[in-house]
Prior knowledge:
By secondary structure, the chain is α+β, with helices and mostly antiparallel strands. The protein has one domain. 24% of the residues lie in helices and 44% in strands. It contains 1 helix and 6 strands, in the order H-E-E-E-E-E-E. It has one helix at 3-31; strands spanning 44-50, 57-64, 70-76, 81-91, 98-108, 111-120. It has a 6-stranded antiparallel β-sheet with strand order 1-2-3-4-5-6, covered by helices on one side. The mean pLDDT is 90.
Amino acid sequence: MKSEEISSYLKQYQPQIEAIFISFEDNYQKTGFNGELLPGEDGIEYSLIKDDFSGEMSLQGVWNNKAGYKQGMMLFHPDGNFFAEYDVIQPHPKKKQWFVEAITVWGKGADIKAEPRLIPAVG
């Protein structure tokens, strides 16, 4: 897609993008991890994809890790709903019976929710 189109979507969703970054970091810290979760906004590759339900365009942002594998994503739907997740893939720092798979963030407009996605630890 044209970079002008992507720039227009980025401008439209900038408040939510900023709120997603804050929610990721807040939840990461609240879970008990030290340091920062995200490498920064510079590492995101944005594209426009066709929404299967509405047929309209959705903005997608993807983070890749150093090895080139997808580590996180954001998706903004035309109706204003959004979803984001970033892989943590570490043992829970406070609850040894859990493993933190990812931090997820979702919402619409200024209504934002976030939580760690936990799976039972093996062993």
